Amino acid sequence: MPGKFGLLKILQYFCDIKIISFKNHQSKFVMKPIDENKEFEYRGTIYNGFLMLAINLLLIPAVMAALFITASDYEAVWLWVCAAVLFIVFCIMLGGYIIQQPNHARVMIFFGKYRGTFRNAGYFWVNPFMNAKKISLRIRNMDIQPIKVNDKVGNPVMIGMVLVWKVKDTYRAVFDIDSENPIQAALAGTATAQTAAKPDALESFVRIQSDAALREVTGQFAYDSEGTTGDEVTLRGGSHEIVELLEDKLNERLAMAGIEVVEARLNYLAYAPEIAAVMLRRQQASAIIAAREKIVEGAVSMVKMALQELKDEEVVELDEERKASMVSNLLVVLCADEPAQPVVNTGTLYN
Questions:
Q1: Higher-confidence residue: 247 or 199?
Q2: Which range marks the domain in which residue 299 is found?
Q3: CA 300, CA 321: separation in Å to the nearest integer?
Q4: Model pTM score
Q5: Can you point out the beta strands (E) in the chain?
């Protein structure tokens, strides 16, 4: 059975299959569940950069000594071989120094295999054959330019937002998002161009997903309370509810890239230009109607008070016809847009 067990080990390593049990020489296989968080801390060997720099500098006099020491021909050959080896070691060691600032991380990749994420700040030396991809964990700010979206009732509106985000899962940010720009890679043909394109690709992913989330949220609400019923949340009035829903949608969309939304705020909201003039007239009409209602309400109150004061003070006795005439005149004066012109009546009401 050793051959069978060796085959199982090979399958376990290359096919990511977990062996549950061995009983009566029968094996049971199940596929390992997909781990949502594949990021883990780097546990490999890391040395202090200054210590390794001192050791690296000591190789220079060692190489010089091996080259210029006088010896026999046989010993000279070995000294030259040692000098060559020391020089190669010196050159290889130069590629292992990294400087890491706070709120930065290094995704350690060894010949294509993820070895962990290193987050400590300082000057270090790692295996020169380790590919340490640098990624920023700092908070970033993004201004999403206003886009045209139809609201719940079909009105085209212009809406924009400010997004504050940061990288939370370095594994997903590096390996789950295609950060290579094929055009730049074809032109440059170097890893430097591909690495330089990564931040732009990540920001482009955030921008596109933010645009989609903003469109989805905007389509669920009306611009204002016109055409809505009850206490329905609107884009203009329900800022807190809108922001909470927007942040939830953004976190849901950006989680696949290991990105966390710190804050999202609407910074622009207006009707689209093609209907802005019409909607402005509608708003003006609504404002005029509300003002007229207030004026009429105040005028009726004042007329009522005037009639009541005349009756209580017994200034003059007015019949119903005279009261109606007085009410008409007072309403005209109080509700008119322009000052009323006084007219002196030289006769009587009935002549």
A1: 247
A2: 285-335
A3: 18
A4: 0.63
A5: 17-23, 26-31, 47-48, 97-100, 104-110, 113-118, 122-125, 130-136, 140-150, 156-167, 259-271
